[in-house]
Specification:
The chain is α+β, with helices and mostly antiparallel strands. It has 13 helices and 30 strands.
Length: 536
């Protein structure tokens, strides 16, 4: 499998430093320069390596521009910085549209891919207009330019694939994702089970988690792949104390002995998982470790080796309790101060730099991710609110969309179905693609939740059910048990069949058969949801 970068030499190369924009001249032999700055774009196997040297300048952005007049009326699909927010779609050319990491162009015959290899040292995005294509590598270090000194930075490795006429857009998307990520990490077994967030919303206890564990265990008869039970936010010492939901990562009064709880969960027959927010804490730490302080506590600076070792020690402690899964959350928000849906072309939303200005935000983030992965031992890892292209090849599971809901079906429909469909090509090619939970409560009509359960179970992706055992009916128990039976075994990846023209695909190919879902039924309950504000 080979991809080539066939846009040729860019027609313009510009760099933004802390002092402003600079146009670079040259282009011969793939190199451009200005006073004190050199950029090269050279063949490196199937990719093109974008490198920059700036011994005395602080660099923020590198932009490459190709003049390529667009023909016909192509449909374009871009990715998201971290999670999807119900807004992924194939659409026509939109010059202001920012497409992080990669994009696909379908002309009615073949689907071409433009992207970068996973694990780049910059935050990368593409834009397309009628007259050409622009690529941007954000090499900033927090709110300021990176100071490379004598170092040459490999900012990104660019890829292009012209596509094949025999491939559907979905097959082409899968193929291009495989090209971008050479060594994906996948869970040891298919992932399914419980998570307590969407019915408990942080209000739980040792005894309630054991009840959840017994319930989830009772729904699965699989001998060798037991269900997970994930303890989400609410177990840690500072949970419910002010606005902090960070460290220290020890249990509170309702969770007095986490190691004992984990052991009891295993005895019940589930694989224990646990949630954490590694960059936020109310611990007493050295002042230089704190990048900034907010209403919820202190946000640590992961550019410092001592901070990484502190995070490593916390994760190793949790791993030492015997967990089988670690879900870590909020790192993108804590690093950049905003959610992916508002980043667009300006991912850095904070006025804070990092202590180490010699590395880019992407490099600092990757070092954090790798530290968490190493410290987790044999546990599977879910990255939630983590950069997609930096998580691929590091974490085995990625939360690919914003939260679904145990309170409003419309949020699950809007966030969940869109995420499941449009990031499905990343499943098995980047990581295991988790479109989030089924929130089984009295607030969400079962007729809709049952469809969400069916598609998750038959999609080949992770299935997590968040359910209060006391309100689950016998009909629902039977449906979950059947869903677990499917989800416990490897399944072919489900394919959205109407995704070119429907942001909430209803036609799917699942296990070789076409299945139709009705996501948008109108009931009094659903109309009340919209009046109350389902997005909350």
């Amino acid at each position: 499998m080979e991809a080539r970068f066939e846009l040729g030499a860019p027609d313009a190369v510009v760099v933004r430093t802390d002092e402003g924009w600079k146009s670079l001249s040259g282009g011969g032999s793939g190199s451009w320069s200005s006073a004190g700055i050199a950029v090269t774009l050279t063949a490196n196997g199937s990719a093109y390596a974008l490198e920059v040297e700036a011994p005395s300048e602080a660099i923020r952005l590198i932009k490459l521009r190709w003049k390529v007049r667009q023909q016909g009326s192509p449909l374009i699909l871009g990715d998201h910085w971290e999670r999807g927010y119900g807004d992924l779609e194939w659409r026509g050319i939109a010059p202001e549209r920012v497409m992080p990491w990669y994009f696909l162009r379908y002309d009615g015959t073949r689907t071409a891919g433009y992207g970068v290899k996973t694990g780049p040292s910059s935050l990368c995005f593409w834009q397309m207009d009628a007259d050409g294509i622009t690529f941007t590598a954000d090499v900033a270090s927090g709110s300021a330019g990176v100071r490379l000194g004598a170092r040459k930075l490999l900012a990104a490795e660019l890829l292009y694939d012209e596509g094949r006429e025999s491939d559907t857009p979905f097959a082409a998307a899968q193929r291009f994702c495989r090209l971008m990520c050479e060594n994906p990490v996948m869970p040891k077994q298919p992932v399914y089970g419980g998570n307590n967030w969407y019915y408990a919303y942080g209000n739980s206890s040792h005894a309630e988690i054991l009840a959840d564990s017994r319930f989830m265990s009772s729904l699965s008869s699989h001998k060798t792949n037991r269900p997970f039970m994930v303890i989400d936010d609410g177990w840690q010492l500072r949970s419910g104390v002010g606005a902090c939901n960070g460290g220290p990562w020890v249990g509170n009064d309702k969770f007095p002995d986490m190691e004992r709880l984990i052991g009891e969960m295993k005895e019940i027959g589930v694989k224990p998982g646990i949630w954490c927010r590694p960059l936020l804490t109310e611990e007493q730490v050295p002042a230089e470790w704190v990048r900034y302080a907010g209403s919820g506590g202190q946000v640590l600076d992961p550019s410092l080796p001592d901070v990484l070792e502190h995070i490593r020690a916390s994760v190793e402690t949790m791993a030492g309790w015997g967990i089988d899964l670690l879900k870590h959350d909020f790192t993108t928000y804590d690093l950049l101060g905003q959610w992916g849906m508002t980043m667009k072309s300006h991912p850095h939303g904070l006025q804070h730099t990092f202590s180490d200005r010699s590395r880019t935000t992407a490099e600092i983030t990757l070092a954090l991710y790798r530290t968490i992965a190493e410290a987790s031992g044999q546990a599977d890892i879910i990255g939630c609110n983590t950069f997609s292209h930096l998580s691929a090849g590091v974490f085995s599971i990625q939360r690919t969309g914003d939260d679904t809901s145990g309170r409003w079906w419309e949020r699950t429909r809007y966030m969940g179905v869109n995420t499941l469909a449009f990031r499905m090509p990343q499943h098995g090619t980047f990581y295991s693609h988790d479109a989030d939970c089924l929130g089984l409560t009295k607030d969400v009509p079962w007729a809709h939740n049952e469809q969400w359960l069916r598609i998750l179970a038959g999609s080949g992706t992770p299935l997590f059910v968040s359910a209060d055992p006391s309100i689950v009916t016998k009909e629902q128990e039977l449906a979950i048990s059947r869903a677990f039976e499917l989800a416990a075994e490897p399944m072919p990846v489900a394919e959205p069949l109407d995704w070119l023209h429907n942001t909430c695909p209803s036609r799917w190919r699942m296990n070789g058969e076409e299945v139709v879902f009705e996501w948008n039924g109108v009931t009094a309950e659903l109309l009340e949801e919209k009046e109350e504000g389902w997005w909350l």
